Amino acid sequence: MKTTRNTKTTAKRKSGVSNSKGFFSGGFFRLTFRILKLLFIFFVGSSIFFVVLFRFVNPPITFLMIQRGFERKADGKDWKIDKQWKSFDEIGEPMKRAAVAAEDQTFLENHGFDFNAMEAAYKKNEHSKKLIGGSTITQQTAKNVFLWPGRSLIRKGFEAWFTLLMEVFWGKKRIMEVYLNVIEMGDGIYGVEAASQAYFHKPASDLNNYQAAAIASIWPNPLKWSATDPSDYVRHRQYLIRRNMRRLGPLDF
């Protein structure tokens, strides 16, 4: 009888060990896979939801605006987010043309990515300490509206995903409208309307080519560069932007 009981006890123990091993070798990974699958489905669904939502609802704030606000507070300054949303039709043609001339001359033709510009930027960055970007206006808008500032492969992957969604659900007209309303234009200044009022004391609808090019020239570094008191380098950028504006064909949004 004792032998039988010992045998049963040993069998239960072995069974318990086997089940434990089976859980960690199979059950654990199945559970992990299910969680990851649910997270993936949630991310895809929520990202599509917000992209579609912002097709009709103007984004109220961005991660960059919040970050800059805290940076100002850390420097002992007041919280400042100066922005005034303007619809696509309320923004003058010179500002739209300057944006395309400065940032993405194939904007109306590409599908969110300019691979030639990306390749050129990659080759130039290999031999330069000062990094330049090859992002399109759609990519920049995706980063500004949906993502956080910074450079990383993970963020670039998310940026590519949102770029594709925006090209599908928004279209070029909405992309340009959002871009010109959320882009950083100075210390606490966001969007072309706030920039136009701050630098030239007029609405963005009244900007001429020279003024629009001046605003667009500071976008790579709006916290250090000035649209109204440009350095020689920024003044040269303004000249190049105006030249590209003249070369652009009609902007048929």
Can you characterise this structure?
By secondary structure, this protein is mainly alpha-helical. Helices cover 64% and strands 3% of the residues. Strands 1-3-2 form a three-stranded mixed beta sheet, covered by helices on one side. Helix 9 crosses helix 10 (232-247). The longest helix has 55 residues, at 2-56. The chain starts with a helix and ends in a 6-residue tail after the last helix.
Provide the descriptors you would attach to this structure in a database record:
single chain; 253 residues; mainly alpha; Penicillin binding protein transpeptidase fold; 2 domains; three-stranded mixed beta sheet; 3 strands; 64% helix; 3% strand; globular
Question: How is the secondary structure organized here?
Answer:
Layout lengths: L1 H55 L6 H12 L7 E2 L9 H11 L11 H12 L10 H10 L6 H17 L2 H11 L1 E3 L2 E2 L1 H9 L8 H8 L15 H16 L6
Parallel strand pairs: 1-3
Antiparallel strand pairs: 2-3
